[in-house]
């Protein structure tokens, strides 16, 4: 059970890293509508979450360029 205690302690110390994309980043890609930026930020947050918070800014912004 020692391993479980270590894992529990590690999980308690972990926190979600800051989201790497901002509305300013999306504007630089060429999108200016506030509603569209908000919707894209939500979609990108979901992708980032599904990646285990591992995707970086460039990877997330490349998703916008593909759509």
Automatic annotation (TrEMBL):
Its cofactor is Mg(2+). GO terms for molecular function: metal ion binding; nucleotidyltransferase activity. The lineage of its organism: Eukaryota, Metazoa, Chordata, Craniata, Vertebrata. It comes from the Eukaryota. Gene3D superfamilies: cca-adding enzyme, domain 2. This is tRNA-nucleotidyltransferase 1 mitochondrial-like protein. Keywords: Magnesium, Metal-binding, Nucleotidyltransferase, Transferase, tRNA processing. GO terms for biological process: tRNA processing.
């Amino acid at each position: 059970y020692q391993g479980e205690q270590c894992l529990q302690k590690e999980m308690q110390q972990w926190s979600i890293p800051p989201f790497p994309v901002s509305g300013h980043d999306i504007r630089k890609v060429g999108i200016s509508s506030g509603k569209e930026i908000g919707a894209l930020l939500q979609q990108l947050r979901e992708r980032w979450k599904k990646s285990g918070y591992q995707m970086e800014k460039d990877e997330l912004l490349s998703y916008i360029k593909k759509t």
